[in-house]
Amino acid sequence: MNIYDALNEYKQYLLIEKKVSDNTLKNYMRDLEHFINYIQKQNQVVLINQIDKDMIRKYLQQFTSLAASSLSRKMVSLRSFYKFLMKEEIVEKNLMETFDLPKNTKRLPQVLNVEEIKTLLDSIEMDNFKNARMRAMLELLYATGIRVSELCNLKLSQLNLKMKYLNVIGKGDKERLLPLNDYVCKILSCYIYDFRYPKLDFKDNDYLFFNNHLNKISSEYFYKILKKACINANIKKKVSPHTIRHTFATHLYENGADLRSIQELLGHSDISTTTIYTHVSNNKIIDDYNKYQLRAKIKKGDSIHEI
């Protein structure tokens, strides 16, 4: 089978059977197209069965200087592709079986503290459509911890301000009902009635949040306006939409929320994914200990008699 035909079949499989998100699909396709372009350029390969293990090894060697996470992502894309090829009997051997993923030092997620998230949210005045939309999107992210893809795909029909809940459609089309607090309901109500409806000017639009062309907001665009909001609020940390999701979960855990509840709210299928927030909070405990415990303040070289 031609390489590009195989890739196209895999793309259809991801879309129809796996029902992956637009963002996941884009990442897989970007990695695999890069791989195929390299293979064709270096080896003049046309058929998928012409690719051998040595070609893959040489391709992956380009990325050994990158962070382990970057190399891992490319390898995961190739592994998934070859599993599909084996499943459909397009190839006779899974060439990715002998390649081990690099050891990845697990980095704890970046989070904002209570003051930082408050500063960021309060810095956005709801004085025009764009600012009101940004404030509403950020407040909703912090109030629910939803993924940026879930946020951008939200329809107005998924929101019930009277009953104070949000119906989210997550990975694999799984639905979860999320509670909304009074404050975020107030912000959303202001956005919808004072800015969203006037902007539409009686036009139909299913999306809760949309751009000037009345189309769905992309994750990339939201990241850009979030970055700008952080600069305006003088937030020094590197903040992404996922940072707000991490912040939501971490603040819940630090205030006594049960890990199982956080798992349900985030839409994690495995509790082990959620346990990362216990480590984030433990880091804060250590920082607070070193900051406030009297004996911890003694510097190296200080005499015990100086205490």
Automatic annotation (TrEMBL):
Q: Where is the Core-binding (CB) domain?
A: 1-86
Q: Which PROSITE patterns match?
A: CB, TYR_RECOMBINASE
Question: Gene3D superfamilies in the record, alphabetically?
Answer: 1.10.150.130, Intergrase catalytic core
Q: Report the leader peptide range.
A: none
Mind telling me which residue stretches traverse the membrane in this protein?
none
The reply to whether Cell cycle figures as a keyword in the UniProt entry is: yes
- Limits of the Tyr recombinase domain: 107-290
Assembly mode? Forms a cyclic heterotetrameric complex composed of two molecules of XerC and two molecules of XerD.
Name under which the protein is recorded: Tyrosine recombinase XerC
Q: What is the lineage of its organism?
A: Bacteria, Bacillati, Bacillota, Erysipelotrichia, Erysipelotrichales
